[in-house]
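Fold this sequence, please.
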Amino acid sequence: MTVNTAPYGTWESPIDAATAASRDGRPDFARIVGDELWWTAPRPAERGRRTLMRRRPDGTEESVLHPPWNVRSRVIEYGGLPWAGTDRGPGRGALVVFAHFADQRLFAYEPDVPGSQPRPLTPISSLGGGLRWADLRIHADRGEVWCVLEEFTGQRPTDLRRVVAAVPLDGSAAEDRTRVRELTDDSHRFVTAPRLSPDGTRAVWIAWDHPRMPWDGTQVLIADVTDDGFSGARTLIGGPDESIAQIEWARDNTLLAATDRTGWWNIHRVDPATGAAVNLCPRQEEFAGPLWRLGLSWFAPLDNGLIAALHGRGAQRLGILDPATGELTDVPGKWTEWDAMVTVTGTRVIGIAATATTGHEIVELDIRTGRPRAVAAHHSDAVDPDELPAPVERTFTGPDGREIHAHLYPPHNPAFTAPEGELPPYVLWVHGGPTSRAPLVLDLEITYFTSRGIGIAEVNYGGSTGYGRAYRNRLREQWGVVDVQDCVAVAEALVAEGVADPARLGIRGGSAGGWTTAAALVSCSTFACGAISFPVLDLTGWSAGGETHDFESQYLETLVGPMAKVPERYRDRSPVTHADRIRAPFLLLQGLDDVICPPAQCERFLAAIAGRGIPHAYLTFDGEGHGFRRQENIVRCLEAELSLYAQVFGFIPPSVPTLELTI
């Protein structure tokens, strides 16, 4: 192959924006129905909907639901497990229940019955965003599907109640709301994970209250199961400083719980009578993560008493835990990052995993052989592996000597090299959350830039998950401080090491990452430009009783501090307050249907910088919420971002429309 010499940023890449956008998303919520594997899959080219897929025993795959069906829940706006299925045996086949995104109703569908169409199980609500459902479990013997019900009680985004509910499978609740049995009261603002014991006598669930988030403190409640619902509910374990992320019943009617009472989410066996808990595998590793969506699953008990469990520090890999000995045996294979989607049946373990060079795929392990195999992929292999960057895991030193974890993706294109002595531009990617992390997995959006000669550094700043409670607690009352400092420290270290061009540093992020990006641009001169997507820009407007949704409406109480005590902190840290300090060009991207970070935040920020002579562009997208799902919109965003870098960093990218910057 001929290697051409050309400046960074001008390299011709075979990976265009359409290719990257067509692979956006991943398989999700994989479950077993009978002998078949089912899961939800993204369809960026079909207005960003998610379909339901099935893999038959002969290996053929098919989409079970065609447009306009969209299998996706809006519970807590981030959603959760939106479907459940059961096999009713020969002659009847599968029964699936799913939440349809457009109206949030539950529908039942019998795909193996000729002429069958989805039929509604729940009514439409005229109030707010409707009745919403997630974390579904079918109890066919009871004729019900158990789930979390989220119901609007008023017009404000915080006028909500949530309960564990039982919806009849016969469709009688489709027109009659009273046919839905509420199994819990609404004394807790948030509930999830309703689990029926193997002997059918008890149920447990997870609950928490404002202002805590589920990674701050949760409780496990237990109750007797009667013909009328739940009786005698009481707190079993948990509290304001203990986060239980997942609970499951073991086959012997004891309870398994992933709790961070040791400072790390470890799996404990809990006595359902006394609440006494024993750590089954004490390690300074995470066996769970933050509950941003309901129904996530980091572990699953097998019939033989073993436990399939994700674990790790900064990454999650799959292992098999023997609770009797505490021995944890890692599953072999190439996969370096597993999603919180572990499910089991018999001797089979199903998960969703990826590597830095291969996309997410559904992996099946038979514990009798110990050999895993990929059974369904997201088809990211359309890209030549030679085009992919070789990422490097790094730990940098930040202020006060603290550790900062990051992934570096150097510029890479086998057909190009840069002129001798030229340093590449680098863009720091800031993940959302902020209580989350950037996993080391294949992302074609990253490759879109690295293959053109732009380096990427993903920063898991203080406050990120995966490194224990103490690491994520660094952000308590320090949002807009620690995250910005850590990003700046990584950028300055890359410059000091001679890796990056100090004059061509950028920063980009969405949601909480958009906040950090904007906060960096108004507080330091490290970055020459920034790409800000669906951000928080005004803390006062985003606080309790403000513009955002209920789930995060009091998140700032821990991230910033109690507003009643430190109101000036909300003003002083907000980028909108200091718009006069911004000097760097920026791109602002916003979905017009976003109820988490609404357009009003962007509009106030733009009004504050109007007439100040800062080159910028503001692109909005109808039909998009918090994060972009439609292929054509993702293409537009990627090309606009590349054009911003080209204009600021001083290169001309081939075949990319020029983004018009206004002043």
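The longest strand covers residues 229-238. The chain has ten helices and 39 strands.
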